[in-house]
Amino acid sequence: MRLLFIGDVVGRAGRSIISAELPKLRAEWGLDFVIVNGENAAGGFGITEAVCDEFLAAGADCVTLGNHAFDQRDALVFIARQPRLIRPVNYPRGTPGRGANLIEAASGARVLVVNVLGRVFMDALDDPFAAIERELEACPLGVGCDAAVVDFHAEASSEKQAFGYFVDGRVSLVVGTHTHVPTADCRILAQRTAYMTDAGMTGDYDSVIGMDKEEPVRRFTTKLPTSRFEPASGPATLCGVAVELDGQGLALAVAPVRIGGRLAEARPGFWQGS
Amino acid sequence: MRLLFIGDVVGRAGRSIISAELPKLRAEWGLDFVIVNGENAAGGFGITEAVCDEFLAAGADCVTLGNHAFDQRDALVFIARQPRLIRPVNYPRGTPGRGANLIEAASGARVLVVNVLGRVFMDALDDPFAAIERELEACPLGVGCDAAVVDFHAEASSEKQAFGYFVDGRVSLVVGTHTHVPTADCRILAQRTAYMTDAGMTGDYDSVIGMDKEEPVRRFTTKLPTSRFEPASGPATLCGVAVELDGQGLALAVAPVRIGGRLAEARPGFWQGS
Amino acid sequence: MRLLFIGDVVGRAGRSIISAELPKLRAEWGLDFVIVNGENAAGGFGITEAVCDEFLAAGADCVTLGNHAFDQRDALVFIARQPRLIRPVNYPRGTPGRGANLIEAASGARVLVVNVLGRVFMDALDDPFAAIERELEACPLGVGCDAAVVDFHAEASSEKQAFGYFVDGRVSLVVGTHTHVPTADCRILAQRTAYMTDAGMTGDYDSVIGMDKEEPVRRFTTKLPTSRFEPASGPATLCGVAVELDGQGLALAVAPVRIGGRLAEARPGFWQGS
Amino acid sequence: MRLLFIGDVVGRAGRSIISAELPKLRAEWGLDFVIVNGENAAGGFGITEAVCDEFLAAGADCVTLGNHAFDQRDALVFIARQPRLIRPVNYPRGTPGRGANLIEAASGARVLVVNVLGRVFMDALDDPFAAIERELEACPLGVGCDAAVVDFHAEASSEKQAFGYFVDGRVSLVVGTHTHVPTADCRILAQRTAYMTDAGMTGDYDSVIGMDKEEPVRRFTTKLPTSRFEPASGPATLCGVAVELDGQGLALAVAPVRIGGRLAEARPGFWQGS
Ligand SMILES: [Fe+2]
Ligand SMILES: [Fe+2]
Ligand SMILES: [Fe+2]
Ligand SMILES: [Fe+2]
Ligand SMILES: [Fe+2]
Ligand SMILES: [Fe+2]
Ligand SMILES: [Fe+2]
Ligand SMILES: [Fe+2]
């Protein structure tokens, strides 16, 4: 199975490159399943139903979120009717929407997608390790699902790496999101889970984590807000990670994806010319 | 001028690859100046005089530090007699050692090296933006020095990127350290400063940020310490960033460096076969 | 029913005043139930079995803990055989000991004691609000118990106050611990739960939160550790809160208690001369 | 000299009790100098020029601020023309307004007032210890001023207490603000500086730190914002600390002040009936 995960789409710049590139990538690479993190898709903060639909129409099978999940308050409503939109699983009981879902690929394969929030340097939710344990007990890889992907939305590299080992051999891919910078450490762990500390954001990198850089620089130097944060509007880079899975849902190959904009391009060599 | 910056060396595994590879790289790539971040070199925490000397002997011109600068208490003493060992510049007035220094390359070029600590999600020191401003006023690029490198030791990608823009055009390279994960975002900013959010660590990546993974995983799941953190001892990856500078000390080319161990290898194409 | 809660006992100075004063107070005030927070009792960090026994012998019915619960590693063992020692309830599943227990007073009254850790500015555990909800469902005041006391061990005043309102009318007393400073805001909330933001510590107030002041001042000014923290050894103040309950376990009167040492003395007027 | 310091005034409820009580207290107690912390005076967030003038008209000689200093953006402008409004001294160089000022009492006595922000669990500013050192060198007690008061606006009790010892004997009073809860630990330190960990807020205590309690409780339990924070509007308590100074500006007596609202009343016995 061929999986593509795309990191935090930021604002219009990020959405544009999704619309422009994802349909082509889906065809060119013969993708079976695509996940897009959309927590910053609407003006940098949260997601609207229209934007979520746009991602699904462009070729995403599923959209994940993060600490900005509900910045657009409508999401608390429309998430209930959108089973392909996944919010962090460790929000308090009673939070609208799903933190994990089993989604059918076009091929019929069943993919478990879980979105989990880390706790180090973030607003505290319930234990992400206990949360994933529960989800994997309920739906074990190879039994309840054909592939399992965790979008671990977290700040600290230590928590992300520990989380990766914790689920090694039990999920297909653990990919970090939230820092908005792609890491160069994707690899296959000992028990064959694909791992990458952060997918990076999909947006304009001539920015501070996707936002126009003037205001962030001003806030760091003056310690005072002057204006609102606005998404940067230059050419975007689509960032993510590509994984080839075997019949048991474990990783055969993993590679970074970076297309467009200001970062060095990266495409999975194992799917080129295929 | 050819610069190599190597990220946080962790424990014996990290030190071994420095000794094995750095002399070769220095010759092969015709390096003019090498900086090694050594804050985790001694058993994962701090640095000893012997380790610092080992790095200098292997081909480093300069060693930088970070929040672990003085974990080995001896460093408070020997740093006074080692002008090539640079601790964070924004420690309180009266802290032993130097936070910036002008170091002569073998070629005679004068390289300003500054180590700065970020403040987001870290123990608070004084303003890193004001600190670099003072250093650059005292020693402007092209006037007081032929090249200027800032090792910005920080957690948050937002602070690192904002810092990069803040000094764009005024230094040769801003490279982040501290997260122990290499980022895939190195680039040349608009005013020709080379930038990379994190150099990554130099150590065994089959670990949690360089440490044996059992204890970190246990602490995240039990919230209780069971034993001490110990550096992982498997094959290390040397991680860093390579920069080619022009006569004004501004960047002509930048590329990631990853050699050995478990990460995908990366070498600067612009120096291959030269 | 007459309840006395005594805040974080710090080191030998704190233990001495417990031994000297608690037996007298128990008799003089005709106390029915006494709780002592012992998380800093052993050298400032954690608790030993001998110290716990000492508190019970001096007149405590129950000992609570906090973020320092297991600083003395033996506590992970002896807590299993000591039903009167209560650790934070929101530690991960599988943590040794109890986070809540129903303890019989000499009078036969059943007192539910719960220890909960806050999450703001603290290492993240699971939701304290959800945790207390579960405990109160399992053992409602007036049904499963005759009185219920929550030691909410937390840093932020906002979280403590919100927690108080959350359980108002459902417990007898919510008392904060952890800041080591007594607050002057004890009161009876609208539904008759007694509330106090922090009980204060029991120890030497000529100190930094109970510790010799030289090292903390040095760390704040130099940002470097020089030596270990040691409990201050001057005359201690016993700090806490006194509550008179009615037959339903709700508060009739509440008053601060401060005896000995450097703080202005406070004793519950409603029990004087009785 | 008779000094009164009044803690963070929150919203209309807090302002009302200032207007109603301060003129009477000034006369009744024969106050020489009054300081009011006004960082939450305008709707809970920041201060306007009208509110600042209102405090001065009611009998304040000086108004201090905190982390909410510039929540009302106008303050960045009018603070320049209001020498009696003091913002945190450790904001970056170039911040409008003054962080310290020498203010003449009606008696002609010169009172140095300094507002300092702590750094533990707060947005990081520059070193508060170094900042106060500079101010006291520039204007030593007994030489440059007849009295010196520091409003140390900070979260952590450890930082507040360490700060108190750091300036002991060099200022008349160190009083903490920011937690919005009065502490019961006011005392005179060894070198005769009066100290209190927190003055408490001046506002409605049937609230979460001065704000209507529904929204804070909801946010803690749901982890989602539903509406804005609004100041609570019930009867307020005026909270602060009273200090009697000798001819050298050192403390002869210190006592808490709590008037009105839901907290137990406290008035300085040493000024009653005088
Ligand atoms: Fe994001
Ligand atoms: Fe995020
Ligand atoms: Fe490091
Ligand atoms: Fe570090
Ligand atoms: Fe404590
Ligand atoms: Fe504690
Ligand atoms: Fe305040
Ligand atoms: Fe504040």
From TrEMBL, chains A, B, C, D:
Keywords: Hydrolase, Iron, Metal-binding
Annotated binding of Fe cation 2, by residue: E39, N67, H153, H178
Record carries keyword Hydrolase: yes
Gene Ontology terms, MF aspect: 2',3'-cyclic-nucleotide 3'-phosphodiesterase activity; metal ion binding
Binding site for Fe cation 1: D8, E39, N40, H180
InterPro entries from the UniProt entry: Metallo-depent_PP-like (IPR029052), YmdB-like (IPR005235)
Residues annotated as catalytic: H68 (proton donor)
A Pfam family assignment: YmdB
Similarity-based family: Belongs to the YmdB-like family.
Name listed for the protein in its UniProt record: Metallophosphoesterase
Organism: Methylocella silvestris (strain DSM 15510 / CIP 108128 / LMG 27833 / NCIMB 13906 / BL2)
Lineage: Bacteria, Pseudomonadati, Pseudomonadota, Alphaproteobacteria, Hyphomicrobiales
